[in-house]
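Q: I'm building a small set of examples for a reading group on sequence design. Run inverse folding on the following structure and report the sequence directly after it, with nothing in between.
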């Protein structure tokens, strides 16, 4: 019996040898279990509710097919994400299009493919949607994204609902925008959306925003006779760090939010809107592990010991971008005493390319060991770059002892496939 780290019956050291490193490995079972929890604890308990997986967290054709099979919808934020979803034969009517600066071409694509909802992020966008829909002879259902002026307790780079946020329509503009929107013939205003930020771990943040939005809904009904049919409360449901804090069930967030929505609607005499959520990280974050091979090890007396791996900020920008913290294990040396503290460095030419600080590891860590970094399933692969001309890693799904390759590793040739030398450059 091997002492190697295992995920869903697959030996991760063997996977590293089979596919090479860096390698993103995902537990398909965990993704499916998260989707089922959303179905059981939210969708089945609240009539008319919807859950759209925020695909920016992690998107591949295979991932889309899992979300489709599990019966959830999809939140996309660009023409590229929409294209991929349609390529995966994801039903357009279960797609919601976001974006704080959608291109006209993206709006055309969305209207043409018949996406379920477009979430409007600024006033001028409504005219474009109306015009495009008129040309296509359609009426497009939209939501208005409201900035509820609620500051989530999370890193400032991932706060989105505070006053001054680049996302959403300022609260005080909403009555004007609603009045204008309901007078248009080719858009249908279904309701409102807010998204407060990411990695939120306190349900009360959602309640603050619900209070703001339900008051707005009441004012609009009184002032304009407009009744809100739908309310999308966004995503941002946090996950644990794998050490002290554990991931909370989805109901930890959604039960109090639903209770508050119901209570406020009762107080204001409003009909209950159908409610939607957009979880991203909560579905895939913990399902992903990144495997690296250890290379250079530098012991710097009086400073620290650097353990360098064959990836870094190009496959996981989050530690460098906003100080995200990760836990890791030496996958081929499980169960040994961890009597050494190291700094895990990436291989990019940036001093800031540090993946983990102060990581306890076995004292005999050496080049060739396989380091497994946990909880990398969200915003790692989707934010990956080719900095330093590093090819993007492969993605493997594991399930009940079987592994499948869902994204091939990029090759050096892939990196130059769109380039031309000075003599073969195109004059366009
Ligand atoms: C509009 C919207 N919905 C949902 C999400 C998903 O957030 P998370 O992955 O934290 O759940 C995001 C993330 O940025 C978002 O912008």
């Amino acid at each position: 019996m091997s002492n190697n780290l295992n995920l869903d019956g697959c030996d991760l050291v063997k996977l590293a040898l089979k596919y090479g490193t860096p390698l993103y490995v995902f537990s398909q079972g965990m993704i499916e279990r998260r989707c089922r929890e959303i179905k059981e604890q939210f969708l089945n308990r609240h009539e008319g509710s919807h859950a759209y997986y925020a695909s920016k967290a992690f998107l591949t054709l295979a991932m889309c097919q899992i979300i489709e099979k599990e019966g959830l919808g999809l939140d996309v934020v660009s023409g590229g994400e929409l294209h991929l979803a349609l390529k995966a034969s994801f039903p357009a009517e279960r797609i919601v299009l976001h974006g704080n600066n959608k291109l006209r071409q993206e709006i055309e694509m969305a209207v043409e493919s018949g996406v379920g909802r477009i979430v409007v992020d600024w006033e001028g966008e409504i005219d474009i949607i109306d015009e495009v829909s008129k040309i296509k002879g359609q009426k497009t259902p939209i939501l208005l994204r409201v900035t509820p002026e609620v500051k989530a307790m999370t890193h400032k780079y991932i706060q989105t609902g505070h006053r001054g946020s680049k996302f959403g329509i300022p609260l005080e503009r909403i009555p004007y925008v609603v009045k204008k929107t309901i007078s248009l013939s080719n858009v249908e205003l279904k309701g409102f959306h807010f998204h407060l930020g990411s990695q939120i771990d306190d349900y009360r943040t959602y309640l603050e925003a619900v209070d703001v939005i339900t008051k707005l809904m009441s004012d609009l009904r009184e002032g304009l006779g407009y009744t809100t049919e739908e309310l999308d409360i966004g995503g941002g449901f946090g996950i644990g760090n794998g050490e002290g804090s554990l991931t909370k069930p989805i109901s930890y967030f959604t039960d109090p939010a639903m209770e508050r929505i119901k209570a406020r609607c009762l107080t204001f005499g409003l009909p209950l809107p159908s409610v939607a959520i957009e979880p991203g990280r909560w579905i895939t974050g913990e399902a992903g592990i990144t495997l690296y091979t250890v290379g250079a090890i530098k012991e710097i007396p009086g400073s620290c010991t650097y353990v360098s791996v064959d990836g870094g900020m190009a496959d996981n920008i989050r530690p460098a971008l906003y100080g995200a913290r990760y836990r890791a294990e030496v996958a081929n040396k499980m169960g040994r005493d961890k009597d050494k503290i190291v700094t895990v460095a990436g291989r990019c030419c940036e001093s800031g390319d540090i993946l983990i600080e102060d990581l306890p590891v076995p004292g005999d860590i050496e080049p060739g060991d396989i380091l497994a970094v946990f909880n990398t399933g969200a915003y790692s692969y989707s934010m990956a770059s080719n900095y330093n001309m590093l090819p993007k890693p492969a993605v493997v799904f594991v399930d009940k002892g079987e592994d499948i390759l869902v994204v091939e590793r990029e090759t050096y040739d892939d990196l130059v496939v769109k380039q031309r030398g000075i003599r073969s450059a195109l004059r366009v």
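The two ends are 62 Å apart (CA to CA).
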